[in-house]
TrEMBL record:
It is found in: Cytoplasm. Pfam families: PRK. Residues 3-188 form the Phosphoribulokinase/uridine kinase domain. It comes from Croceitalea rosinachiae. Pathway: Pyrimidine metabolism; UMP biosynthesis via salvage pathway; UMP from uridine: step 1/1; Pyrimidine metabolism; CTP biosynthesis via salvage pathway; CTP from cytidine: step 1/3. Its EC number is 2.7.1.48. It is an enzyme of class 2 (transferase). This is Uridine kinase. Keywords: ATP-binding, Cytoplasm, Kinase, Nucleotide-binding, Transferase. One of its GO terms (molecular function) is uridine kinase activity. CDD domains: UMPK.
Length: 202
């Protein structure tokens, strides 16, 4: 089994890069796990209380469960991945049953910041895009897909996203084996990572 961790600031293009990597790989060989699925269950808080949570701090993630799940997959066991709703800002009642496959890709802003999680990765990748690029992408995406308005995205960016990026995410770049520049779509880097994965599959 090959476990790949892909980190990078919000809007850098992690999800897009992962989609591009896996789209030409056999579906039955690769599992993608998003750190977002492991946001703490906040069902006990009101929607207003949840909207004040700092979702960019490592404490907002249930790393213990994510690490336990990766160890279970490595041991050949099936896991139940929580489903997170960005619109509700909490976990939903359902889970997704996931079986072990040859390649596991774990993506999320903080996946290289946690030392225990880092130890599980065979390859560590950091996707870089400049902060202005990332903010523009985040504004467009959160308004279109995550049910946020302009003021909410900017307020969250200034109070949580940017300070947590500087404290936890950007410093985790030093642990990366590969840094993918992604101010523009980077097909060369995507092809290189896919080639590494294909070598593992044969
Ligand atoms: N290289 C790129 N150039 C322009 N837009 C991009 C690029 N990569 C991703 N995007 C767009 O930016 C937004 C955020 O990308 P996404 O992959 O969700 O980032 P992340 O998962 O790192 O938060 C999406 O709307 C996506 O289509
Ligand atoms: O309920 C939530 C939970 C998280 N966020 C924001 O999401 C990003 C991380 O996701 P990316 O796909 O990597 O952008 C993080 O910056 C959180 O602030 C949210 O808005 N609502």
């Amino acid at each position: 089994m090959l476990i790949i961790g892909i980190a990078g600031g919000t809007g850098c293009g992690k999800t897009t890069v992962v989609k591009q990597i896996v789209e030409e790989l056999p579906k039955d060989e690769v599992v993608v796990i998003s750190q977002d699925s492991y946001y703490n269950d906040l069902a006990h808080l009101t929607k207003e209380e949840r909207s004040k949570v700092n979702f960019d701090h490592p404490n907002s993630i249930d790393f213990e469960l994510l690490i336990a799940h990766l160890n279970k997959l490595r041991a050949g066991n099936t896991i139940e991945i929580p489903v997170y709703s960005f619109v509700e800002e909490t976990r939903l009642a359902k889970t997704i049953t996931t079986i072990p496959k040859k390649v596991i890709i774990v993506e999320g802003i903080l996946v290289l910041s946690n030392p225990e999680l880092r130890k599980l990765f065979d390859i560590k990748i950091y996707v870089h895009a400049d902060s202005d690029e990332r903010l523009i992408r985040r504004l467009q995406r959160d308004i279109k897909e995550r049910g946020h308005d302009f003021d909410k995205v900017l307020h969250r960016y200034q109070t949580a996203v940017k300070p947590m990026h500087n404290e936890f995410i950007e410093p985790s770049k030093e642990f990366a084996d590969i840094i993918i520049p992604n101010n523009h779509y980077n097909t060369v880097a995507v092809d290189m990572v896919r080639t590494i994965i294909i070598e593992k599959l044969v």
